[in-house]
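=== RUN LOG ===
request id: a7f3
mode: sequence -> structure
chains: 1
length: 206
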Amino acid sequence: MVYCTTQQVKDYRSVDKDVHDDLLTALIERATAIIDKVVGYSFEPITETRYFSSDALIYDAGNNAFDYSQNAWQRSARQLLRLDKPLRSVTTFTNGDATVLDPSKYRLYPLNAMPAWGLTAVGGNHFLFEEDQLVSITGVWGKYTTPPADIVHDCIRLTSFLYVQRSSQVFDVLAEPAAGVVTIPVGLPKDVWLSLKSYRTKRLLF
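=== RESULT ===
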């Protein structure tokens, strides 16, 4: 997935010719990669399987402590498993003993919010960690289903910046406009950087 289209970039630059479409396509891919690198994650949801050990178990609001009187690798009911990435939906949850849990035996946490950052066992069921085995979750992971409008604009802006940069003979130079010098800002355009910086902060809250 890329975060903007060639037509959006051409509309932004008031270009109606297709002569540079291939170049714009490549620059859009580059701009998308830069955005992902700066922010630290992708705005595209990914279907994959992720694995978790018992170290991912944390206290639940309704369960102040684990019940260690049970099997050493079986915790008390209403466990809360903290995930390492935002989760949008679960396809399959496989316990440490290789059994597949029915979706009615767990739920996304917190309720009424998306994406989820945890799974909680319900109805007296447990997440099982047999010795050093892992539980696995196959599902759709990602903080967003589609890139937000400001990320789309950032992609358009950054692609346009890269497009202009390719033909400029002067880089990192500040000059009076009257001098006839094309000025390219140092690094990313400031407005793009400020926008992406806010998403970097949001990521730390997960």
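=== NOTES ===
The beta strands are 46-52, 57-58, 80-94, 100-101, 106-109, 116-121, 135-141.
The helical segments are 6-13, 21-39, 149-167, 190-204.
=== END ===
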